[in-house]
From TrEMBL:
Protein name as annotated: Flagellar secretion chaperone FliS
Subcellular location: Cytoplasm, Cytosol
Organism domain of life: Bacteria
Pfam families according to UniProt: FliS (PF02561)
Amino acid sequence: MSFRTSAHAYTKVGNETSVEAADSHRLIELLYEGALSRIAQAKGALRQGRIDIRGTKISHAINIVLGLRDALNPAQGAELANNLDALYDYIQRLLMDAHKEGSEAKLDEATQLLSQLAGAWREIGANKSALL
């Protein structure tokens, strides 16, 4: 088994273990982290002229954002859920356009938006933990 194969297997087991042990709040954090990671990888591929990798990483990021949209619960705050859904839709369109146009600026904008959302989500988790 090569180092690359071993590293991939280790990462996969680590990711699966993180997901299995996570509560619903942590799962959303993992989705944000995954989307941001894929966008960073897509940006690297863009800079290297690797359209194939860029497309794959952007596709993964779009799917993760779709997962964030699916996790929304309008029953616990319809207005917030609707606003987040619209923002996630915008981020998905940014990512599609970034790939189509080869736009680093659009990848950066998607990163900025997701980073702000991830930060707010982490704060909610920290405040929730402090109350317990």
